[in-house]
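Pilot study result, target chain (586 residues):
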Amino acid sequence: MDHSSHNKLISFIWAIADDCLRDVFVRGKYRDVILPMFVLRRLDCLLETTKDAVMEEVKFQREEVGLTVLDPDGLRDASGYVFYNISDWTLKKLVGTAVNNRQILEANFKAYLDGFSDDVKEIIEKFDLRNQIRKMSQSDVLLGVLEKFTSPYINLSPEASTDPDGRLLTGLSNLGMGYVFEELIRRFNEDNNEEAGEHFTPREVIQLMTHLLFIPVKEQLPPTMLVYDGACGSGGMLTESKNFIQDPEGAIASAIPVTLYGKEVNGETYAICKSDMMIKDFNPENIRFGSTLATDEFSGMKFDFMLENPPYGKSWKTEQKLIMDGKDILDPRFEVSLKDYWGKAYTEKATPRSSDGQLLFLMDMVSKMKPLDMSPVGSRIASVHNGSALFTGDAGSGESNIRRYIIENDWLEAIIQLPQNLFYNTGISTYIWILSNHKATHRKGKVQLIDASELYRKLRKNLGAKNCEFAPEHIGQITSLYLEMKDEGISKVFDNRDFGFYKVTVERPLRLAAQFTPERIAGLRFISGLDEPMAWAYGQWGDRLYDDLKNHEKEIKAYLEKEEISITPKNLKVLLDLKNGTLNGI
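Predicted structure:
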């Protein structure tokens, strides 16, 4: 790839925001315009060469065949892509015929958007681009933005061109487009770092995950590979996986076909991911919108490799009614078969507390592992979690059932502790779990723990909570420790049974100690607070006091006055009352 030309292109597009959007959008919202417009211009460039053919096909279907609803297959064939546009407009035509009337320009632009195929319309909707167009039109910056994106000084087409000064502008391949797009996403996410961690995993973390996921089986890869991410965000893990596998200078360097699948619940991030797939000529239909926990869009499918960074500490109460009916589990992904102490199998729910659903994402991936009779290599999983997934939940709880199910089936290969402050929006400790249902012989019955919390280099400038990163040598060191499975230093190896325990409730009879001695009984004879006059009275008359207390009232009151003992009327009444006073003191 020509990174020099790519970086110039990135800088040009990055500058559009400051040139055109300043004072119209707050800085954190620049990406809401730049990313969809960048995608739109790329699609527009791809369709330019076949525009006439598409319009001929539209004319043929309407006039000669008499179709009122156009056949999308014929239009795709005419465009040469899985998408098309049947309007009379292109972005260059919009700019070239623009008049000094922003309402007309806005109307023409919307007509252009209406001409796209349904998959592009969905991306436009999720980007909320129509509202952004209206806002730009009202602020009179829409034409300026269009002029920038259609400038002859940048080339978003796959074909080479020449700028007005005669300089050659190399074509932008799908791979190059992917690089530019991902770099823009990264910059916008880091620039708006308070939200970045929600949808964006640092690239070096993804690189570590791909190393741990693919390198151990690089000599045993299946003839075709299906890769899945149920919390795919902007698609970084998916595209990095494919790039890692097929990079001709990489550790795998394989030409094996790779098909990517993902699901995302955030509308804007879903639009970024789907448009990225479309731009790179992947099947955009493999990216689904919605909650992975609520509905299983890929039910029945099995995948070779799965990797995720699911949301942790996020409630799944809104999906709970679709997963559980009271105490009954409705979704088989979240039920597990366990054995009791005597080896008898029983079904148990695998649902953690409703305040944190991260382990449900892990169970979704586990349910999609290929059995060994379907693939000799089975499936491999890499998933990022915080400490809650490791430690929360007592024996018999949903969290414990999930951990127990994974370990007892001997699927957990390793857990790697990452440095703190590695992610954009959190400084807490995080961990990568590596799972496989086809462990190497030397790993069977074992779990490896690697403490990589001190392997990092400091950033010159903090990016939100992120103040450090992995250097390539750190990724190499962790990968070597994992592959060699060393039991020394920061790498420890344990047996599966070391992680198991039973919770046993031991009940025993209540034990009370009682002693009846003259000293203890004497202490119970008198009421607290009245013990001094009661003890004097008992010392004067002994047990006879209980028979003729009334006859001794004058002596008792005289004693109180002589000794200057202050006593309330209420306590005096208690002291002189045979039932509640002296007698009660015995």
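One observation from the pilot: The mean pLDDT is 88. A full batch analysis is planned for the follow-on phase.
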